[in-house]
Every structure is written in C-alpha cells, then in structure tokens.
C-alpha cells in the first residue's frame, strides 16, 4: 500500500470484491453485550488490517497511521476525495451511509468504473477498503446522522489528498 504506482492490492479470502479493482468489503463482527453491542473494527487476523501481513501487535512496523471518526449530518454528503498515498478502511458503526467509489487510476484494469455500497447497522456492518487513487464520497441515509470510522494506513497529511466538488464532471455520478 502506498503510492499510486504500487500494485493494486489483492482481495483477501473472506472479503467481497467490488467493481473497482482493489476495493472490497469484509463483514465485521457485532457481539451482543450487556448494555449494548461491541462492534469490531481492526484486530489481529483481520485480512484487511492495514499492516497487511498481520504481524504481532507490538511490531514497530504496524501500519495503522491514524483512526478517526467523521460524522455526517442527516441528508448530507461529504466528498469527493482521493488520496495519493493513503489507503482508507471505512466502517459505519452508527447510522447508515451510502459510499460511492470512482476509479480514476490510469493504469487500473477498472479505470472509469464506479460503484456504490451501503454500510451501517443493522444490515451491513462491514469494513470497506478504498485503495490509493480511488475517489470516494459518502452521505447519510434514512434522513438521520451517521458516523464513519476511518482506520487509515498513514497519518493525515493535508498535502497528499485531492478534492473535487460533488457535481464535478470528472466523476460520472449523481447524488440525486
């Protein structure tokens, strides 16, 4: 994982490939507990874990650069954004979101392909991998706020991301 020139990541066993090369979904566990459920995100043995090889948790090369949350207000969309070095790992633990992906990588076998996926509870709590160089945007569903968790493989660097307006002609997708 890393630069745009890196190979497109393989889809690990147990994950569902999406139409955009390297993008995939992995179901996440929801464990019932007294007072409310426990929602898994990244843990040893997870085939999408950003350290890729699933080395020991005390490995200094652990590639979880940062984990943050993005709240999306009801009937709101955030995006388009594309990273030049960062792989995104998204889950939606509260609410439901529609996420759209668009592959603008010139050397990708799925160049020009887009797809959308709905994430959230109760019907699709899963981890979505968004490869380097893939545009993404996300919006709340059900006229309610939603919470997106992102476990990126490198810390935030404001110089490595690019943005486009939601109605950009460069991305053939309509949020209407």
What descriptive keywords fit this protein?
176 residues, mainly beta, 6-stranded antiparallel sheet, 5-stranded antiparallel sheet, 13 strands, globular
**What is the general shape?**
globular
Strand content: 35-45%
Contiguous uncertain segments of 5+ residues: 57-62
Order of strands in the sheet with the most strands?
A: 1-2-10-7-12-5
N-end to C-end Cα span = 33 Å
Run of helices and strands: EEEEEEEEEEEEE
Which helices and strands, and how do they pair?
Layout: E1 16-17, E2 24-27, E3 30-31, E4 38-39, E5 66-72, E6 77-83, E7 88-94, E8 96-103, E9 114-120, E10 126-130, E11 134-140, E12 146-152, E13 161-163
Antiparallel strand pairs: 1-2, 2-10, 3-4, 5-12, 6-11, 6-13, 7-10, 7-12, 8-9, 8-11
